[in-house]
């Protein structure tokens, strides 16, 4: 019979498959931590698959870490002599601190692989583990584990009476240390997430607080337990708890700041109206298409068409024609005239040259097709300062959707939690916000400033040279500056 996690109490059986209360409570706690973390990561504008990918991997890595920790500190000699027993998880033996250490190490790898700030990710996820631990400890109750010293039956008179029977093991009553740890984990979650978070000063503070809080309560709990793993004459969990407390306190006090430096921000640009002055070419091309099909292209429409996708404009004004076909006609004509009507924005080339020389990753995310963007950049030798391009033909959803920005970040493994997106339209700024970026609204025409103000960008400028000052700011380059 196959058992997932050991327990004296079976929750449900399916033929030879048995699921225990212990397993169910562990998974319930993990699921709760997952959904809260997923909500946090969604608010941070991470792609939807990041949370599921992280937690699927952590579940496996955490169990392996918890098992190895147990084997090492329970009876290393036995498991060295019987290595196959290491995999016999159904026989019991998981140590949560080992799972935490393994999960933290893997999370660091995950963050670097996805271009995330490890400390920001840890703040979003680690405090939620307290709820997972609080629920998981009731699995220990079902298994009659995680108890303290022998107590008199009267100990359970009053509010603890509901767990009295479970803490009677072979006719003897024990302290319910699992219960105290469960309650303290919930208290810690409330203190960190609902109080400390309001006063958070820097990335990592919530994760450091978790290490300190859990270290303190686990040190206390282990001082009363009679079933602890030992490291010589010392309780291994207490040693690990002390390490958690020290690491958390040093981090919270900012003593790691000299060693932990934020990566340089990734700087992405729109093309039209941002680093290239293509306004005249855009308006001239729209005039050509509208006149060809007998439609009036008014003065007011000249501002409206700067920013939105071709398909959205043609859908709005041509109910009798295929907007995709009109968009293709637009591209063909615009390509014919672009050399005569386009030019780089003032200071654009110098600004890009400095960013490149100083080691910043730069890219263009445009509603133009990739080859057209490339052709425009090559015309002015600007391509040598741009690391990558994403065009409209590489995504399924146009701006303001963040698909193009997400694609260029993922493709290059660029830093996401330090991201600047520069654009000249409300649509551009919305796309940057949807990617969680720090947004810069650029207006080369003062008449566009009022309209651009509606986008609520993080900052505005009429001089691209200012981007060189922006990247040097001592802030977190994300939409909410955290």
Topology:
Layout (H helix, E strand, L loop, with lengths): L1 E3 L5 E5 L2 E4 H23 L5 H33 L14 H19 L3 H8 L3 H14 L7 E2 L16 E2 L2 E3 L2 H19 L9 H20 L5 E2 L2 E2 H17 L13 E4 L6 E2 L1 H14 L6 H6 L5 H8 L5 H19 L1 E2 L3 H10 L4 E4 L4 H10 L8 E3 L12 H10 L6 E5 L2 H9 L3 E5 L6 H5 L5 E3 L5 H4 L12
Parallel strand pairs: 1-3, 9-12, 9-14, 12-13, 14-15, 15-16
Antiparallel strand pairs: 2-3, 4-6, 5-6, 7-8, 10-11
Description:
This protein is of the alpha/beta class. Helix content is 51%, strand content 11%. The protein has helices at residues 21-43, 49-81, 96-114, 118-125, 129-142, 177-195, 205-224, 236-252, 279-292, 299-304, 310-317, 323-341, 348-357, 370-379, 403-412, 426-434, 449-453, 467-470, and strands at residues 2-4, 10-14, 17-20, 150-151, 168-169, 172-174, 230-231, 234-235, 266-269, 276-277, 343-344, 362-365, 388-390, 419-423, 438-442, 459-461. It has a six-stranded parallel beta sheet, with helices on both faces. The chain has a three-stranded mixed beta sheet with strand order 1-3-2. The radius of gyration is 29 Å and the shape is elongated. Mean pLDDT is 90; it is low at 1-7.
């Amino acid at each position: 019979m196959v058992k997932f996690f050991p327990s004296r109490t079976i929750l449900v059986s399916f033929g030879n498959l048995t699921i225990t209360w212990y397993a169910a409570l562990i998974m319930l706690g993990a699921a709760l931590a997952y959904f809260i973390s997923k909500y946090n990561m969604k608010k941070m504008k991470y792609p939807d698959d990041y949370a599921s990918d992280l937690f699927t991997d952590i579940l496996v890595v955490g169990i392996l870490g918890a098992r190895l920790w147990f084997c090492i500190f329970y009876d290393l000699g036995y498991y060295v002599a019987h290595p196959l027993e290491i995999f016999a998880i159904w026989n019991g033996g998981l140590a949560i601190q080992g799972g935490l250490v393994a999960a933290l190490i893997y999370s660091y790898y995950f963050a670097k692989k996805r271009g995330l700030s490890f400390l920001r990710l840890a703040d979003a996820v680690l405090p939620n583990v307290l709820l997972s631990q609080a629920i998981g400890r009731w699995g220990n109750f079902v298994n009659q584990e995680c108890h303290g010293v022998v107590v008199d039956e009267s100990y359970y008179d009053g509010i603890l009476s509901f767990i009295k029977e479970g803490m009677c093991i072979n006719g003897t009553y024990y302290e319910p240390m699992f219960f105290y740890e469960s309650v303290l984990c919930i208290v810690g979650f409330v203190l960190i997430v609902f109080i400390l978070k309001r006063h958070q000063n820097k990335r990592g503070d919530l994760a450091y607080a978790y290490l300190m809080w859990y270290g303190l309560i686990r040190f206390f709990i282990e001082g009363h337990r009679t079933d602890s793993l030992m490291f010589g004459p010392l309780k291994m969990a207490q040693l690990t708890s002390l390490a958690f407390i020290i690491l958390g306190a040093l981090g919270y006090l900012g003593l790691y700041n000299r060693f932990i430096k934020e990566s340089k921000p990734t700087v992405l640009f729109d093309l039209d109206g941002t680093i290239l002055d293509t306004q005249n070419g855009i308006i001239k091309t729209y005039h050509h298409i509208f006149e060809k099909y007998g439609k009036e292209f008014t003065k007011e429409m000249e501002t409206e068409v700067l920013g939105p996708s071709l398909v959205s404009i043609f859908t709005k004004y041509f109910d009798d024609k295929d907007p995709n076909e009109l968009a293709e006609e637009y591209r063909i004509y615009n390509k014919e005239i672009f050399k005569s009507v386009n030019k780089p924005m003032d200071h654009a080339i110098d600004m890009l040259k400095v960013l490149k020389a100083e080691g910043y990753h730069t890219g263009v995310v445009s509603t133009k097709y990739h080859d057209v963007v490339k052709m425009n950049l090559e015309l002015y030798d600007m391509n040598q300062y741009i690391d990558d391009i994403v065009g409209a033909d590489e995504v399924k959803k146009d701006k303001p959707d963040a698909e193009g920005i997400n694609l260029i970040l993922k493709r290059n493994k660029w830093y996401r939690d330090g991201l600047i997106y520069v654009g000249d339209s409300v649509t551009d700024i919305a796309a940057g916000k949807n990617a969680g970026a720090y947004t810069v609204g650029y207006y080369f025409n003062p008449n566009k400033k009022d309209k651009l103000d509606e986008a609520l960008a993080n900052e505005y400028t009429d001089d691209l040279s200012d981007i060189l000052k922006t990247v040097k700011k001592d802030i977190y380059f994300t939409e909410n500056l955290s």
